[in-house]
TrEMBL record:
It comes from Sinocyclocheilus grahami. Belongs to the PIGS family. Pathway: Glycolipid biosynthesis; glycosylphosphatidylinositol-anchor biosynthesis. The gene is LOC107587228. One of its GO terms (biological process) is attachment of GPI anchor to protein. Keywords: Endoplasmic reticulum, Glycoprotein, GPI-anchor biosynthesis, Membrane, Transmembrane, Transmembrane helix. This is GPI transamidase component PIG-S-like. InterPro entries: PtdIno-glycan_biosynth_class_S (IPR019540). It is a multi-pass membrane protein. The keyword Transmembrane applies. One of its GO terms (cellular component) is GPI-anchor transamidase complex. The keyword Repeat does not apply.
Amino acid sequence: MAALQLEKQRVRNAVLAIAAVVIVVGIPLWWKTTETYRAWLPYSEISQLDSLQLQLSVDIEVVFSRGTLTPEQQKKVPLSHVNVKEHQVDAKTGLRYKYETRYRTATIMEEDALNQPTAAEADLSLHMLSENSCGSVVVYVIPESSALLPVDVKVYVGQRRTALLRSPPFTSSWSLKEVLSNLDVDVKQVVSTMSFGHQDIVAALSNRVRMTKVNKESMADSMRTIKSSPGYEITFSLLNPDPKSHSLHWDIEGAVQSYIQPLLNKLAPIANFSVDSQILYYAVLGVNPRFDNSVSAYTLGADSLSHVINPVEARLGSNAASSNPVLNFLLYVPDAHHSPLYIRDHSKREVPSNAFHSPRWGGIMVYNVNEMYGPEAERPVDININMAKVMGVFLAQLRLMLGVQRTHPPTGFVLQSPGSAGLADWELDRLLWSRSVENIATASTTITSLAQLLDQIGNIVINDNIAQQVSSAVTSLQSAVAELEAGNLAFALHYSREAILASERAFFDPSLLHLLYFPDDQKFAIYIPLFLPMCVPIVLSLLKTVSEAKQRLADKQAKRD
């Protein structure tokens, strides 16, 4: 009897020891070795980015030249004035525009610059005196009787960040407050022309807000502009469908250096650009042009232009080594049997440039050469393409694709041509404002979407590299928002580019997909055949041991009673 009790005691001890090892060692060890590694992410800071409140600060300097204010008024000119406008775009996105205007009188050297014979020379002389910071606007108020501007011109906007404003007709009896109040209307028009517009900024937020908040013109500009990217590939292609008749020569390298490269140099803060060219022989359009007897020429209607791109695009090839967006610019020389060829708009009128563009893709120009030779000319005919004519069209299309928006100045405004630079400084500022806001909106949306995804699916691995990219994106976003608020446009763009790069690297990291499609039912299907045969004896033994212990306690209680 004692030996039997001793044997039962050893069995109970063995069962309890095995259960203790399984519970204390086995289960924690299995849990630790099979858990999904998830690095720490700044969820609290990411949640703050879901509600985006941006402040855009613009520095404005109004400079009064000699003869615009009386000596008494000059003494009372305030140092600065701040104007704030707030717009709530939607429940989670708000905009705040801060315009800080500083007033002063012109220096002696500035007065000398304003005495130049033409406004363009005055603008250049003022630029030589000092270079204004990125995003700022300087308005020089000149006397009403000044001959620097034509009589019908009220405002002259130069190539830099300065504008010449003809003083409204004041009288000496006016107080300084009345003068500044009347002048403020014209200054606001200058700032809205040279700096950002509200609809342009809302259009840049298209990744966060509904397009119903944007007017039709800004929506069209936004849909035409290629999305922000760290780099772009620009390809110029010459299409010669009839090499037996035409031997075409184009100085594309010299044309790019003369017309395109100056623009790309100014856009260097926004993205990196690479340019290449090619000549495609026997490349034809995807549609057959119609012959119009009234003009004795072939025509392409606006309805058929959409069918031109796909067949041609198949011949263009692609750069597999780069993931950057590509902008294509095609120069098409019609074959001898379909010349001349003209493009017509929806109103059946000939397009003056004989070219068209496709949003976010590029442009095509038709270049007729039939007038350059007679019917008896020896084939193939050597033809030198007028690159100035061609590049003028492609440059205008490139500006539209990159987001250099068309400006519609008020009546009485004259905008100086950007010249060989291809882009005025204030046009660059307008683009920088839009791109900075677009980058911030895109990066914040990407990061918040990634955080929600990782929070909802707990078995996705978050390695240290992803956590580092997310933290870097959040830090860059906070810096970009702060720099926008401080009015440092160049730094805001820099940080916004870093934010969008880091956010996209984190979002598209391949390691996020390893356990994405491994649901819990598959885990049970794997674990049950492994653990069930081992767990059933242990559990039954534990139940038996507990039952025997309860029986012993019941027997002892009965004896006491």
